[in-house]
Write a structure and sequence with these properties.
Chain lengths: ~500, ~160
């Protein structure tokens, strides 16, 4: 087993990996930028190394600084987390060249699956269904038009090198193709340095369902069933669950078999995710390969909850060359899990990302409630990085009970000082389409109006009273926790604490 | 001794009187309050039902969490209950959050029209255009490209 691991990430995922290290007896090495010197992951790790100034390009994306930090700390391996360098083949290669274990697939696998066009061809060659589409030659200006008319409208233009919805355009008629492709190429060039496009049939009201896989060092590929990720706002996942309320046992059987075939075709190693679009309902639903994410996913905890397998620990075992001591028959889905992503963004003002200091922070807890968080009370949420603060993951016997558990937990998740999307998450969990399980990837954007209205809220008198009491009582608070109609004087404390300012 | 506070939410103002024993009167409603931990308050409503609220003071007001709902409420003295707060963004423009100035599109003296982008900020990987709220003339620009600006700081003065 690896005995010292550098974690090339920050926030909740760095904390998550540190926890796995602690259980496995691995020494953890955190890295941080100047904006994160007091961050939770820095405080929790066994050691921490400064890698650069606040901008990600000079810190969490700086390959030489990370390799240097790993060497300096005597680490044998690097876990990239998700985002940042996790899907950069160049980083995996640099690790290998420095004699460090990259906790993930080999560089050539990352490169192979990183090209959407290349991955599509590979899947087609191995009979994994793909969305009908074509990659027109860049050399021939008329090729795009020809490909578009063969695929048919409405269609989707996608940058070949893309991700995160950047440069994607829906084109509903031929007359709109030229303008859309120009914009798409421009954005792709700016974001990825490559403007190759491919044309794909637009599948309307599709669901996004993905399958977790894990390949070991001996060529064995296991799957951990599906995650339903259709609750997305502008291509950003917001709520994920497992099992999918729309996947029937027969469909599941076909999808996991396709996912394992896809991972084998890619000669996959370590944890990965095969994403599918699902069209239609019931056993007859069709599914299409979308892409493969060659890393740990943000939403991996829902799979951990239903299968009981610690995926990060499994990643570290695979990276160490150990056997997993796990057979496919051992892996079953039990109960229902839901993850809510808590973002520092203001649902009342166009989801504007929020930065600032967390003045009050209380995590929910209890049976079936897990919080993966990168913050504590007093933490500064910097402006430079992704606004994901924490993830609430609940597990219960049924979907209905899991929804009730998620709602109760969100209502007692206290984050004050910066705006978060918690009221929005509560509105989604109460929406009849969500509770009925009738969701597709367009759900949030379509129902934006009703969900937006649900988060607009007038303060009840109890909130007004609490505000006044906090303002009056901050300097002089009683210590006993008596019944409020009791006789104690709330303002003349006996000895007791004061609220730190 | 009775303590009084005026709590504002949008255009609504609530006059809150808190007695020594925890009795509270808000406008014409009676409630009670007791401390339940640091920044934690147990409020019992007129019907006898208890609610647990969390609160934290900040320079912008008091933040309150109640059953998954979050409010940022302004506090004033009872003496100033009737004083109206001057409108905030009349004639100047501020950063909504800590951000980096990506580009400055106007110079002092420039005539601008409502909706025109004056500067572009970047925060958390998102571009945030700052637009003119009305027609006017740029009196001064208080930031430059690449600068990190804090919320509430005036970036552009309009006349």
């Amino acid at each position: 087993m690896i005995n010292r691991l550098l974690i090339a990430n920050r926030g909740e995922i760095a904390v998550r990996i540190i926890r796995a290290c602690r259980e496995l007896g691995i020494e953890s090495v955190a890295v941080y930028s100047d904006a994160d010197a007091d961050a939770l992951h820095v405080r929790l790790a066994d050691r921490a190394i400064r890698i650069g100034p606040a901008p990600a390009a000079e810190s969490y994306l700086a390959i030489p600084a990370l390799i240097e930090a790993a060497r300096g700390a005597g680490a044998q391996a690097i876990h990239p987390g998700y985002g940042f360098l996790s899907e950069r083949a160049a980083f995996a290669k640099a690790c290998a060249e420095a004699g460090l274990i990259f906790v993930g697939p080999p560089a050539d696998v990352i490169a192979r699956m990183g090209s959407k066009v290349g991955a599509r061809r590979l899947m087609q060659a191995h009979d994994v269904p793909v969305v009908p589409g074509e990659t027109p030659s860049r050399a021939d200006p008329a090729a795009l038009e020809t490909a578009a008319s063969r695929v048919g409208y409405p269609l989707l233009l996608k940058p070949s090198a893309g991700g995160g919805g950047i440069g994607m355009r829906v084109v509903r008629e031929a007359s709109a193709l030229a303008a859309a492709s120009e914009a798409s190429r421009r954005e792709a060039r700016a974001a990825f340095g490559d403007d190759e496009l491919y044309v794909e049939r637009l599948i309307e009201r599709a669901r996004h369902v993905e399958v977790q896989v894990l390949g070991d060092a001996h060529g064995r590929v296991l799957h951990f069933f599906e995650r339903e990720c259709s609750v997305q706002r502008r291509h950003q996942k917001v709520i994920e669950e497992s099992p999918s309320p729309a996947v029937t046992p027969a469909l599941r059987q076909r999808m996991v078999a396709a996912a394992v075939a896809a991972a084998r075709a890619a000669a996959y190693r370590n944890a990965g995710t095969v994403e599918f679009l699902v069209e239609g309902l019931g056993d007859e639903a069709r599914f299409y390969f979308l892409e493969m994410n060659t890393r740990l996913q943000v939403e991996h905890p829902v799979t951990e909850a239903v299968t009981g397998v610690d995926l990060v620990a499994a990643q570290l075992r695979v990276a160490s060359g150990e056997d997993l001591a796990l057979d496919q028959e051992d892996i079953v889905q039990r109960g229902h899990a839901i993850e809510c992503r808590i973002y520092a963004e203001d649902p009342l003002h166009g989801f504007l990302p929020q930065a600032g200091r967390v003045l009050r922070y209380r995590e929910p807890s209890g049976p079936g409630v897990r919080v993966d968080s990168g913050i504590t009370e007093g933490a500064a949420v910097p402006v430079q990085y992704d606004p994901l603060l924490a993830k609430l993951v609940v597990h219960a016997e049924t979907r209905q009970l899991a929804i009730a558990r998620a709602r109760a937990a969100l209502k007692s998740f206290v984050i004050l000082g910066i705006r978060t999307n918690v009221p929005y998450l509560l509105a989604i969990l109460e929406h009849p389409s969500f509770t009925a399980g009738e969701i597709d990837t367009g759900f949030l954007d379509r129902d934006h109006g009703t969900l937006g209205a649900a988060v607009r809220d007038e303060p009840p008198l109890e909130a007004i009273v609490a505000a006044a009491a906090e303002d009056v009582g901050g300097a002089n608070v009683r210590t006993d926790i008596a019944d409020a109609r009791g006789n104690a004087d709330p303002w003349s404390s006996l000895s007791g604490w004061r609220i730190a300012r | 001794m009775t303590r009084r506070r005026v709590v504002r939410s949008g255009s609504d103002a609530f006059v809150v009187s808190i007695e020594h024993d925890g009795r509270v009167r808000v406008n014409d409603t009676d409630l009670t309050v007791a401390a339940a931990g640091p920044g934690q308050w147990r409020v019992v409503d007129a019907g006898g039902r208890a609610h647990l609220a969390y609160a934290a003071r900040s320079s912008e007001g008091v933040w309150v969490h109640l059953d998954g709902r979050v409010f940022l409420l302004e506090i004033g003295n009872a003496a100033r209950a009737d004083a109206r707060k001057p409108p905030e963004t009349d004639g100047n423009l501020t950063a909504p959050m800590p951000a980096t100035v990506l580009s400055v599109r106007v110079q002092p003296g420039a005539k601008i029209s409502a909706g025109e982008t004056l500067l572009v900020l970047e925060a958390m990987k998102m571009e945030l255009p700052i637009r003119a709220p009305r027609d006017g003339v740029v009196r001064a620009v208080h930031c430059r490209e690449g600068e990190l600006v804090q919320p509430g700081v005036v970036l552009v003065d309009l006349s």
